[in-house]
Amino acid sequence: MMGYANSGQTASGVHIRLRARTFIVAEPQGNRVVFVNLDACMAEQLVTIKVLERLKARYGDLYTEKNVAISGIHTHAGPGGYLQYVVYIVTSLGFVRQSFDALVDGIEQSIMRAHENLHPGSVYVNKGEILDAGVNRSPSAYLNNPAAERAKYKYDVDKEMTLLKFVDDQWGPVGSFNCFATHGTSMSRTNELISGDNKGTAARLMEDWFNQKKDARTANENRRRVSNIVQGAQVNHHELLELAASFESVSGKPVTKYLSISDTWQAISQCCLKIVSFFNLIHIG
Question: How many domains in the chain?
Answer without folding.
Answer: 1
